[in-house]
Design a protein that fits this description.
single chain, mainly alpha
């Protein structure tokens, strides 16, 4: 009887521990935007495989680069949610994880650990990648702590970091590759537009806590006009870079850039509600994914 009682207590303890760990991993899964991390890793592998060469697929350095980039991105997602708990309780209460699935103390621990590990992995690659990883980790913290609440600056930072996650592949595989530059600019442009659209979606919560994003400072109409300007300027810049370096046929841009952009502008013109802007944000992500997939056509 005593042995049975001890066994039951032990089983109950193990079951409780297992459930706690399961809840923790589930919280981290949502907190770090696991599927976004997979997209980041795949984008780097697509860049290396299709724009550098198939031999990169078996290169352990590419694996380490993707792991370090995903670690730093995961740390960035965590610290962003850490600082935005109160805002997210207004904008997206169903998605709040910190304070529910994971404590604030554990969130800071995982942010710090992932940032340090992400930078440390870079030492196996090159000192330039170490510097880029450190710069990215610091900039993500600064963005979450302050820059994202400023008009345009925070949006630009995320756009630049997205471009950097593509460009860093060229540091691993030299010399200069014009196609990598082309896709880095594409990723930066679409991310920049998406970040501003997300600010329009989150206007209510951001305004309640004194943020000064573009939709709050300028209003929705002027912000939309700025987005139109950005999209047109971005398309012109991509064509210019293509003429100077890449030399892709114009038909390529018609299907993978111009048609999606025209559709995005039409939808943006009609957008008025939080749901509309949420759908536009998803559309930007889809265009970005289609752009990355188009590497296979080169």
């Amino acid at each position: 009887m005593a042995l049975n009682a001890i066994s039951l207590i032990t089983f109950a303890g193990m079951r409780s521990l297992f459930l706690r760990l399961l809840r923790l991993f589930s919280a981290l899964f949502h907190l770090t935007r696991f599927w976004n991390l997979i997209i980041i890793g795949l984008a780097q592998y697509f860049t290396a495989y299709f724009l550098v060469g198939p031999q990169t697929l078996a290169d352990w350095r590419l694996l380490l680069l993707s792991i370090s980039t995903m670690m730093i991105a995961a740390a960035g997602y965590i610290i962003n949610d850490y600082y935005d708990v109160k805002i997210d309780l207004i904008n997206k209460p169903e998605r709040v994880v910190i304070g529910r699935g994971i404590t604030r103390r554990y969130a800071i621990f995982f942010h710090t650990a992932l940032s340090i590990l992400g930078v440390a992995v870079g030492f196996f690659l090159s000192w330039q990648i170490v510097l880029i990883n450190f710069f990215s980790a610091f900039l993500l913290w600064l963005y979450s702590n302050n820059l994202k609440r400023q008009p345009f600056v925070g949006n630009l930072v995320i756009g630049l970091l997205t471009a950097l996650s593509i460009l860093v592949v060229n540091l691993l595989y030299k010399p200069f590759n014009s196609f990598i530059l082309f896709y880095a600019l594409f990723a930066m442009g679409m991310t920049l537009v998406r970040e501003i659209i997300k600010d329009m979606e989150d206007w209510k919560g951001d305004n309640s806590f004194g943020c000064r994003t573009l939709p709050i400072v300028w209003g929705p109409r002027k912000t939309k006009s700025f987005l139109y300007f950005l999209l047109v300027s971005f398309a012109v810049l991509v064509l210019l870079i293509n003429n100077l370096y890449a030399g892709l046929p114009i038909l390529f841009f018609f299907f993978f850039l111009f048609l999606p952009m025209v559709y995005l502008i039409v939808r943006l013109k009609r957008a008025d509600t939080i749901r509309d802007f949420a759908r536009l944000s998803s559309l930007c992500k889809l265009i970005l994914l289609l752009g990355i997939a188009s590497m296979a056509m080169i």
